[in-house]
Amino acid sequence: AANALEDAASEMGVDLNVLKSKGVSLLTPKGMPTEITAQNSLDFLGYTISQKTLSIRSKSIRRIKKHLAYLVYVNLLQEPKRGHFPSSQMLQSIDKGYPVLLYQMRRYLYGGLSEARLRRYLSRQTPQIRYKGLMSFYPIVDDEKLLASLDGWLLSTVWRALKLRSALWAQYYPDVMPQPHGMSRSQLLQFRHNPGNGPLEDLRFPSFRRISKLMRRASATY
To answer: What residues of the chain score a pLDDT lower than 50?
Structure first.
């Protein structure tokens, strides 16, 4: 294995830094006995690689959560906590801050894809297009447990922020509570707003798992 690494380095024209190398070890499932040094996973670029899954490294996950939490705070909590509550945002059938947040989160995760288009691409043939957004940097991640955990975390974060925003809003207009306030987590997942004089506004909740599934399919196809 050491010789193979040296040969590869020679082919690429680079030096193998033995001072930074951890040496040769086996990549094994947790708890499996080994004859030489073993590790359960390793970080490479933005990935954490184990014997069974390709995941997103912990440092990157912290950065992703920090950015999404920032979007939630800025759109739902920053101004209300300062005592600012523009009536134009809330005195209608929908809280105007919520669609803005949804579109920003969706653009961050999906790039230019809408929720409807993403689902259409999953149900039919996946097109060969230039995918953008966060998950285009992780097109072969297949750690379903992690992706489900991120989906749950994002939904709970937004739901809790809405509850706090509702409480702050009730101090000013206790009898007016527009959508999606008061909705359950499951209702937020499939929420579509009917403005009354136009088409339904698609506010279905974005998903790490859905966009990851599309990225994997596109990677395998093309």
So the answer is: none
